[in-house]
Amino acid sequence: MPENFDQLMQSINERLTAIGQAVDENRLKQLVTEQFGLLMNDQDFVRKMRFGGKTDGKLVGTKYARWGLSVADIEFLYDLQESLRGQKRVNDPGVYEGPGEELRNTFQAISEAYYLPMEQVRAMDRRAIDDLFPRIPVTWLGGGDRELAGRGAFELTEAYQRAMRAMDTAESGYGQQLIGAQYVSELWDAARGESRILGLLETFEMTQPTAYLPVEVDFPEMLFVAESTLNNSSNYSTVKTGSQRVQVDAKKFVIHQMWSGEIEEDSIIPFVPFLRRQQLLSVAFYGDSLVLNGDTTNAATGNINLDDADPADTKHYLAFDGIRHAGLVDNTGNSKDLAGAISLAALRDVKGRMIDLTNKVDWGHPNDPTDLIFAADPETADRIALLDEIIAYKQLNGQALLNGEVTRVLGHPVISTIAQPKTEADGKVSTTASNNTKGQVTTFNRRGFKVGWRRRVKTESERIPATDQTRIVLSLRMGLGRFTPTGAASGIEAADVIYDISL
Question: Distance between CA 385 and CA 405 in Å, rounded?
Fold first, then answer.
């Protein structure tokens, strides 16, 4: 085997000369160009080159590059190690000193993230609440709060005090917050891309724990009038445009994991991509389940997710009422006990129930057909895809598919998602799994719902010497806004549920 480039070239020259081929610089260029062209036409070779990924130039030569870590992985690892700073080690009188020198240097070289002290984050929250309360309509407050607000003393109202307490209890009050981190951005973007329901809804950044979204209730009536011919003609009649506000409250969620042994920097490196992938899958699934299955009823009689038992207080679906709740509980006129097999007629009837004649809004027949979504449990979704009318129409030809889309009905996507559970005949999930044999379809117009993000993600770790474990906690805060023209949940028309589907 030639030891260097000169020996390699000499070897090539000798072999080509032996078969009567003259070798010069132009001939070598020709040979390389021809062979490279052949490789580029080899699709398997091109695929492998693409799968090799792209490594940041500043990572080349580091141990992080050898493990295939990306910029986002480096930021996650740095945040994890930074959160351990100052904590006692196990079987060691010392404490964690935070990220090692190589990790610190790599982080600073490739990342634009920076740390903001937690007290500064909380001060920003307080200012946001102070700016918010004077804008809340007095009619939204009751009792003594309304009187205090009428005098401009918002800071004395019970609602203001609750908001302040909620902000304090929603934050740990310790540590620092990583701002502008790529791994945070990638986690949520990827989770939305992986999700099947959450990713379909519009999102907005919440600048305060409670946000109010304006809702266009109706549009002004166009009047038929006579021409004004006199200099003192009467004014034309005026008309009003109705409006409402939808309140969105940020709720806190955590992913709490325990790891055996110390999470030393070098030992955790191989697991960083795996940890981030698991976070992504968790946020994608539970994000879907949150917006679809939310039900705040927490009692012994259960709710739509646990019909005959008291749900644990930490269940994610207790945070806020979701899309299924709108049809099953809030506005039962937008639901159907099918008590039979799914059919095209049943799906068509959904569109008729989603019409708001009072405010002249047709949620069931949107201008953009992809705004109306049929979300079904996988078995029901497959039954829909096998309907004779669907197969005959061949609706998927040439159309881009959404995540989990199995077909289109009347031009609208049908999404298969395990976040949509099978249920009992009443449309609710039984605590006895064998009772959940009925399919369900939740239909919604995605323009009628919005997801608000107050905090994307925060990673914290701590050592537990007594058990030789490390605790990792990821926390986030999000909320869901459901548009209603009446201001009450019973006025929601942008969702519908078909339940008790025979499978």
Answer: 10
Are 463 and 432 in contact by the 8 Å Cβ rule? The answer is: no
Confidence at 443, pLDDT banded by 50, 70, 90: very high
Extract the tokens encoding 371. 């705004």
Single-letter amino acid, residue 2? P
3-state secondary structure of 141: coil
Angle at 350 between CA 348 and CA 355, to 5 degrees: 115
Residue with the larger pLDDT of the pair 200 and 132: 200
Residue 379 has pLDDT above 90, yes or no: yes
Tell whether the torsion through CA atoms of 53, 57, 61 and 63 is positive or negative. negative
Distance CA 219, CA 140 (A): 23
Q: What is the pTM of this model?
A: 0.69
Q: What is the pLDDT of residue 176?
A: 55
Q: Is 501 within 8 Å of 420 (Cβ atoms)?
A: no
Distance between CA atoms of residues 417 and 379, nearest Å: 10
CA atoms within 13 A on the CB side of 436: 19
List the end-to-end C-alpha distance of the chain, in Å, as a whole number.
67
According to DSSP, the β-strands at 412-416 and 372-376 are: parallel
Q: With contact defined as beta carbons under 8 Å apart, do 423 and 411 qualify?
A: no
C-beta atoms surrounding 85 within 10 Å? 14
For residues 32 and 252, the model is more confident at: 252
Q: What is the C-alpha to C-alpha distance for residues 355 and 96, in angstroms, rounded to an integer?
A: 61
Per DSSP, 180 falls in state S
Q: Are 113 and 181 in contact (CB under 8 A)?
A: yes
Q: What is the pLDDT of residues 453-474, one digit of tens each?
A: 877 667 777 777 777 777 878 7
| Nearest-angstrom CA–CA distance, 73 and 79 | 10
What are the Cα distances from residue 38, in Å, to 21, 28, 43, 237?
A: 21, 16, 10, 78
CA distance 178 to 176: 7
Confidence of residue 364 (pLDDT cuts 50, 70, 90): very high
SS3 of 391, please? Answer: helix
Point out which residues pair with 249 in neighbouring strands: 210
Beta strands 335-340 and 251-260 are unpaired
Please choose, from the candidates 80, 34, 116, the residue with its C-alpha nearest in 3D space to the C-alpha of residue 459.
80
What are the start-end ranges of the H helices in 344-393?
Answer: 344-353, 378-385, 388-393
